[in-house]
């Protein structure tokens, strides 16, 4: 099978990581006996030219949208969604459908979809800097950008106790990231992340506890942006809450219609109940470093080491996509 890996300048902000990560994914695919080619596209024209050239059986994209914005995802509302193009052209692709991708990138929409289907989420509001009435919000609340990842826009001031603090944080998110803020109930307890690989009935739910050494937390037990991507977060056995976290994540994946590979973050509310924080449509794939590969190793440690675990994870995702399109799987 020939896999086209699609990435571009937005590969780190939007997708599984920068170019070296895409090269690791390609290496893992090759090690399993399939072939992988990488297309780094900077423009929509280059994206279309890549598809026109063909020579692949299935695409796996690190991008939701082709963009030159390297820093953050943003709300490229009018931009082109790559999965829409795959659908229009009948091109097989790994990962969730375009509709699901659009719902996952917008964390407010994710919460609405989940709440409508009875999946536990925090109370949530979309707040713009120009909004006059914010009386619906209960405190303490948590303020974050509507559609980012890697904890971008998350710091100790994300936890707000009153309207003044809320307005300050919403204005900052508007200035820095040019998007509305998602304001949620503050969830003060333990945090878990669950990797979902494959599709029912062969879907695996792999939970883990996410933490940093206690002296790294500031005023609140939240993963600030400065704690991410620097080797400080630890994925460990989820213990007694693992089954709960997995069950909640599996419910969320069904409600959103997720396919092949997603990672779902959940946190414990003041009432002790787990709630979904977000559904990551293109989970990170940095070998050894991203939470997904760490979760896979936590549950599937092989004697050959974590790069072998990584190869198996990549193979499981590729095969899950391929099976849906009746492509041959080794
Ligand atoms: N409602 C909340 N209450 C408490 N903490 C929260 C809440 N929402 C988010 N956080 C904290 O902020 C961090 C980042 O939030 P979230 O997972 O939504 O965003 P992200 O940046 O997209 O993450 P990822 O890198 O996993 O894609 C979480 O890991 C958590 O520590
Ligand atoms: Mg997260």
Spatial ordering of strands, largest sheet? 11-10-9-12-13
Helix content: 25-40%
Q: What is the CATH class designation of the largest domain?
A: Alpha Beta
Low-confidence stretches: none
The CATH architecture term of the largest domain is 2-Layer Sandwich
Ligands: adenosine-5'-triphosphate, magnesium ion
Q: What is the residue-averaged pLDDT?
A: 95
Summarize the structure.
The protein has helices spanning 11-14, 19-31, 44-53, 82-89, 98-105, 107-116, 163-177, 242-256, 291-300, 306-324; strands spanning 2-7, 35-40, 58-61, 93-94, 124-127, 141-145, 159-160, 181-185, 191-197, 204-211, 234-236, 261-268, 274-280. By secondary structure, the protein is of the alpha+beta class.
Topology record:
Blueprint: E1 2-7, H1 11-14, H2 19-31, E2 35-40, H3 44-53, E3 58-61, H4 82-89, E4 93-94, H5 98-105, H6 107-116, E5 124-127, E6 141-145, E7 159-160, H7 163-177, E8 181-185, E9 191-197, E10 204-211, E11 234-236, H8 242-256, E12 261-268, E13 274-280, H9 291-300, H10 306-324
Helix pairs in contact: 2-10, 9-10
The structure holds adenosine-5'-triphosphate (ATP) and magnesium ion.
């Amino acid at each position: 099978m020939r896999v086209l890996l699609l990435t571009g300048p937005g590969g780190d902000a939007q997708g599984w990581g920068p170019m070296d990560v895409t090269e690791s994914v390609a290496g893992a695919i090759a090690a399993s006996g399939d072939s992988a080619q990488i297309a780094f596209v900077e423009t929509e024209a280059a994206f279309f030219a890549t598809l026109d050239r063909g020579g692949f059986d299935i695409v796996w994209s690190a991008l939701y949208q082709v963009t030159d914005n390297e820093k953050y995802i943003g709300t490229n509302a009018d931009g082109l969604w790559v999965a829409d193009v795959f659908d229009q052209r009948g091109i097989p692709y790994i990962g969730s459908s375009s509709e699901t991708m659009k719902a996952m990138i917008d964390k407010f929409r994710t919460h609405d979809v989940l709440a409508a289907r009875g999946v536990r989420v925090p109370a949530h509001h979309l707040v713009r800097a120009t909004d006059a009435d914010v009386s619906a919000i209960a405190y303490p609340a948590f303020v974050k950008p509507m559609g980012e990842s890697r904890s971008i826009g998350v710091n100790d001031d994300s936890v707000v106790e009153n309207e003044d603090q809320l307005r300050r944080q919403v204005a900052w998110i508007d200035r820095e990231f040019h998007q509305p803020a998602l304001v949620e109930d503050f969830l003060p307890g333990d945090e878990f992340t669950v990797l979902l690989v494959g599709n029912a009935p062969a879907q695996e739910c792999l939970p883990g506890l996410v933490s940093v050494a206690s002296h790294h937390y500031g005023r609140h037990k939240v993963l600030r942006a400065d704690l991410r991507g620097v080797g400080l977060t630890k994925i460990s056995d989820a213990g007694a809450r693992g089954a709960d976290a997995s069950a909640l994540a599996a419910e969320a994946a069904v409600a959103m219609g997720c396919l092949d590979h997603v990672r779902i973050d959940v946190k414990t509310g003041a009432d002790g109940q787990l709630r979904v924080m977000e559904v990551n449509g293109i989970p990170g794939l940095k070998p050894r470093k991203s939470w997904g590969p760490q979760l896979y190793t936590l549950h599937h440690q092989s004697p050959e080491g974590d790069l072998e675990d990584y190869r198996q994870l990549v193979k499981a995702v590729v095969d899950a996509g391929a099976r849906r399109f009746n492509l041959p799987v080794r």
